[in-house]
Write a structure and sequence with these properties.
By secondary structure, this protein is α+β, with helices and mostly antiparallel strands. The chain has one helix and three strands; from the N terminus they run H-E-E-E. The chain has one domain. Strand 1 and strand 2 form a beta hairpin.
């Protein structure tokens, strides 16, 4: 029971973060990087679902 409420609150936080990031993109500030999912690979920097290629 406690575990389920914990998962629900975590999902709510994730949705809030995604909504805030989308709102930031709509306001024209560009994609907001999510530090938890940011990873560097050989191609470029991956921010969640958007990939930036180095110039």
């Amino acid at each position: 029971m406690n575990r389920r409420s914990h998962d629900a609150s975590r999902a709510a936080r994730v949705l809030d973060a995604a909504r805030d990031r989308d709102a930031g993109e709509r306001r024209g500030h560009g994609p907001q990087p999510r530090r938890k999912t940011m990873e560097f690979d050989r191609i470029g920097v991956v921010f969640g679902d958007a990939t930036y290629f180095p110039q």
